[in-house]
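Example record

One chain of 335 residues, shown exactly as stored in the release files.
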Amino acid sequence: MESARWRRVLPCVVLLGSCGVVRAGDDRPVVYCSVDEGLARDLLDRFEAKTGIKVDAVFDSEAGKTTGLVTRIRLEERSPRADVLFSGELFHTMLLAREGLLEAYEPPSAADIPKAYKDAEHRWTAIGLRARVLAYDGQKVPAEELPIRWDQLADPEFAPRVAFANPLFGTTNGHVAAMFALWGESKGRAFLTRLRDNGAKMVDGNSSAVRAIIAGKVEMCMTDSDDVLLGRRRAPQLEPRYLDMGDGGTLLIPSSVAIIKGCRHLELARRLADFLVSAEVERMLALSDARNIPVRADLRRELNMELPPTTGLSYERIADAMETAASAVREILIR
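Predicted structure tokens for this chain:
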């Protein structure tokens, strides 16, 4: 386990300078956060207004989404500087739990969250789903000419027109791991090789991929549903398309909340975690510009939101494939 952990840490140490500095206030819980900063600050402001508890937040960069903060948690294992991880994805949180770096806690507010979105050992809770989608310029690409499966993106017909975020980071990291989990390593590696050889463009992050469409550099990109909605502020012609992973649906990725093992402000961390996984926060996420889909079925009915066709792949299987997929990405794409 120790050697595997350092294989994940070492390629990412360079990102730590972008993560910010933890303030020294001993009476404030510290949250490491890779949820989009504007949205996260609204949520944290709400918590502070409700409780009177001030929170110090450290955010990750676009290029290093989640991975930089997760690396930091590993490096700080013996003396944690943060109390809570509020991540824009789930899979790295699951890996931290497997490594024994997260505290067990069952938030009372999560009682109505389905079991699929809660760790059986109470080390993390997931909320607020975003779909992995193909974003495209509706003025340049007729809908009937789009691919219908994710693996088709690597075909010569599509790859030169596609941008994608570096798969070592953020939700693209989990998406590629899901491909490896569902397709097998051989097909996963072939997909990455064909993306590279057929001219797909790798960029820093999901929002950079969307900006590449807006700038006319590509016609489509792999991204998250919220990035398309936010991109429409500048480019109303942006459209999302749900592509099939190969078993009938696309991948839905939740945000996740966890308490860091050995943290300095355990009781305050529990109060913050309880708030972040509450129905109130899920409603705020759903009503925000990001339009995150609640994991709570009652909230989806209340807000008239539906789940798109979804892969049957479990989050556990995706987490299992993370290291294999990352190794292939380093070998094939990061040269």
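Notes: The radius of gyration is 19 Å.
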